[in-house]
Each structure stands twice: as structure tokens, then as C-alpha cells.
User: Fold this.
Amino acid sequence: MIEDIKKACQVMREGGVILYPTDTIWGIGCDATNEEAVRRVYEIKQRSDSKAMLVLVDSTAKVDFYVEDVPEIAWDLIDVTDKPLTIIYSGARNLAPNLLAEDGSVGIRVTDEEFSKRLCQQFRKAIVSTSANISGQPSPGNFSEISEEVKSAVDYIVGYRREEMGRPKPSSIIKLEKGGVIKIIRE
Assistant:
């Protein structure tokens, strides 16, 4: 696992794109601050960049760095959740502009899964996490379901957890709007 993390970080620092296991499904990832790397992820997924992608971080402290004004309720939601939770925040900052939604928001998930958490810690920046599929096709439940097209398009494929056959669920998604309004996007 340590070698995988080192190699994945090196590839992302050089602007590359990786395929890696997250706290939910396998993801296509890159440096969330690198506009060119983010553009490549949209190309791999064959989707327009008006559809924002989420990012993973390893701690709640990092959320503050990427969001101008984190609503108080966010901390409570992160504390009480017992499964992966992506929160869409307004006022994103310090990220590649083409990663954000048209309204300037971004989805951030604090990962607790061992590999993706350590990857984020080592990389020391937010990492893009989007399902490892071509846009419009079903999300792969595990590594064996990822298409050859996606595998051949990335610069590095993590070896860790490839043999797992479980079908993890995608995260819940909540959008926090002005005035503390909570909008559930996906349960």
C-alpha cells in the first residue's frame, strides 16, 4: 500500500490521472487544484465540465481551506454521519476553476477509509474523486467492472483492493444552501 500511495502521489504531482479505491467505489482522481489534470478527467469520462466533480480530503480542517464560509451545520453533519457523506458547499476556493459547478459550489467528502485517507494525507491537497466510468454508463461496483477504455486512459492504476468483489454504495450527497437550508441530493 505504501508504494501505491507514493507512486499515485508522484503521478498526481506531475499532473497525471489515477484510478484508485475510495471509501465508496473506485474513482478516477487527480490533483483538484490542477486545471489541466481536471480537464483530462472530464475527457476520460467523456462529459462536459459543467457537471462538477467532488473532491476527497482527509480531515475536516481541509474543508475550511477549500470553502470560504463553512456553515456550522456542516460540522454536525460530518460528526454524526455513519456512512460516507459528500456535502456540496457554496463559495469554493483554492481549487481548479473547471472543477466547480456553475454556481461556484463544490462537493467535498472527508474520507475515513484507510487507503484514500492516507493518499490524501500524503498528497496534502484535495483529490478529485469521480466514478470510474464513461459518463452515462453504470458506475462500476468493483475494480473488475471498470472498462478497459477507462483503465487505458489513466496514468496509474492503484494495485491495492483490486481483488475485492463487494459492491460498496456511493456516498450520500447533501447540498448546504444559504441560511442553513439542507437539500438532500442522494440518500
About this structure: Strands lie at 18-21, 26-29, 54-57, 85-89, 106-110, 127-131, 156-157, 172-177, 181-186.
